[in-house]
UniProtKB/TrEMBL annotation:
Lineage, highest ranks first: Bacteria, Bacillati, Actinomycetota, Actinomycetes, Micrococcales
Domain of life assignment: Bacteria
Organism: Cellulomonas aerilata
Name of this chain's protein: Uncharacterized protein
Length: 287
């Protein structure tokens, strides 16, 4: 009997120190490309002290995984390619295996399914879904609010911490409250001391408490809860050079105005303009 040919495949490689935003957009973007090209899909998702949870610890997702060491060994014969897809031609399509290694979104062709669509279709695990719904119902439901995401942890990217200092958020939030004293805020912050400082300064600000260790399973699940609650906001003050906050934008259907210290406010802020989310797990649907 003639053996079956090895199926053509695509592996998306994530580095051990890659954060959630980079990992998700690389995996889902590469999956879309694999579907378009008729290739079996697998991905590298390293876990350990630097990043605890598996993809399936966060969302109901059961893709095929490949150990990092296996991918690196395969790279001697099947070298890594990047997100540009400039390497994709007829010759490349004859190769058995493609390996994509990047921290950036893939530049998918127009005919590929947008990876953002798959992100919105993902279902969080019960521990995350329940926490999102409880917090939303108890603190945020029924009124517009502004999402605020602060990245102040020492391991956050230096460009983010330099361009988006805590003082900028405090000043910007004070300006907003001066114009509209009733403004409500939801805060996502990775340093408890900074979170307390902001909440003490703004009584209408709410945030999760006791989020777990940084990049632990509990910690990333808490970050995912923050992600959905940010996506349910009507406007976002966020960090410069952060992929995570853009996940919130995509979850909201790319309808939110996103302001950073580098990208200035368009003027008057109307947190109600985007509408209210009836289901916080589907922030792209608004009333």
């Amino acid at each position: 009997m003639t053996p079956s040919p090895v199926p053509r495949s695509l592996i998306a490689y994530n580095g051990y120190d890659s954060g959630l935003g980079n990992r998700v957009r690389v995996v889902l973007g590469a999956k879309s490309l694999a579907e378009l090209e008729g290739r079996r899909f697998a991905y590298v998702w390293p876990t350990g002290k630097l990043f605890g949870p598996r993809f399936s610890d966060l969302w109901h997702y059961r893709g095929l995984t490949v150990p990092r060491a296996v991918s690196r060994a395969l790279a001697y014969r099947y070298p890594y390619v990047d997100e540009s897809l400039t390497w994709l031609d007829d010759r490349k399509r004859t190769e058995t295996l493609w390996q994509i290694r990047t921290g950036s979104p893939l530049r998918l062709p127009p005919e590929a399914r947008p990876w953002q669509d798959e992100l919105r279709a993902l279902t969080p695990v019960p521990e995350v879904a329940g926490a999102v719904t409880r917090f939303y119902d108890e603190n945020l439901r029924g009124e517009p609010y502004i999402g605020v995401m602060i990245r102040a942890h020492a391991v956050s990217h230096a460009r983010t911490r330099e361009a988006s200092p805590v003082e900028w958020y405090l000043r910007r939030m004070a300006e907003i409250v001066e114009r509209d004293p009733g403004t409500r805020f939801f805060l996502s912050c990775d340093v408890p001391e900074v979170q307390r400082r902001v909440m003490d300064a703004f009584p209408t600000c709410v945030a999760q408490q006791g989020k777990g260790g940084y990049n632990s399973v509990a910690g990333v699940r808490s970050a995912l809860v923050d992600l959905y609650l940010l996506a349910c906001s009507g406007y976002i003050l966020g960090p410069y050079f952060s992929s995570f906050v853009h996940l919130a934008e995509h979850l909201a259907g790319d309808r939110l105005t996103f302001e950073t210290s580098v990208v200035e406010s368009p003027g008057t802020i109307d947190a109600a303009a985007a509408g209210l989310a009836a289901d916080p797990l589907r922030p792209f649907e608004r009333l």
